[in-house]
From TrEMBL:
Residues 47-57 have a biased composition (Pro residues). This is Lipoprotein LpqJ. Residues 36-46, 58-76 have a biased composition (Low complexity). Residues 36-86 are annotated as: Disordered. It comes from Mycobacterium spongiae.
């Protein structure tokens, strides 16, 4: 059996195919630094994926001989600690399931179907963000499939913020500055 010879047209086709594969593979290996920010109407809403959502309920009451010490001088006694993840964030969902928030030492950001939020880029804002210094910003956004912990109606301590969750809404107060916000579907009050 003799080896098959290829003509110039076959060789060019093979070379073009190899170049196309090389370009396709090299295009997949680049990374672009930055943080993605979606503009309003920039595509469909991010899908919701089921994530484990453990509930954190108030601890059983302790006897008077065993008082619970606060984690800092400004944290109410008996506040339930919410430990941060490896990046310093705590993600919560209210008992009603209507409000989700991400908390770190510098700020708290919550998303909810607010009934009276200001307009942002022609749409009602569905997020509010407050810093420890008291700066407030209304935003359009989606926290995505964050690993939230469902909180009960109780008081919690998370990365320097006291969270007081009630049936009427949730109050976030920075333990160092005293700034914060009260968040409910009907209103947001900042202080």
């Amino acid at each position: 059996m003799s080896p098959q010879r290829t003509g110039p047209a076959t060789a060019r086709g093979l070379l073009a195919g190899l170049l196309a594969v090389t370009v396709a593979v090299s295009g997949c290996s680049e990374t672009i630094a930055g943080r993605p920010v979606a503009a309003p109407g920039a595509g469909p809403a991010e899908p919701a994926f089921p994530t484990p959502r453990p509930s954190i309920s108030p601890p059983a009451t302790t006897s008077p001989a065993q008082p619970t010490a606060p984690t800092s001088p400004t944290v109410p006694g008996g506040a339930i600690p919410l430990p941060p993840d490896e990046r310093g964030y705590v993600f919560i969902e209210t008992k009603s399931g209507q409000t989700r928030c991400q908390i770190n030492e510098e700020s708290v950001g919550c998303e909810a179907p607010f009934t009276d939020s200001p307009m942002q880029d022609g749409e009602h804002a569905n997020g509010v963000h407050i810093t420890a210094s008291g700066s407030v910003q209304w935003v359009l956004g989606n926290l995505g499939a964050i690993p939230t912990v469902t909180i009960d109606y109780a008081t919690y301590d998370a990365v320097g913020w006291t969270i007081d969750a009630t049936v009427d809404g949730t109050r976030f107060t920075n333990n160092g500055t005293g700034h914060g916000m009260f968040v409910s579907i009907e209103k947001v009050d900042t202080y």
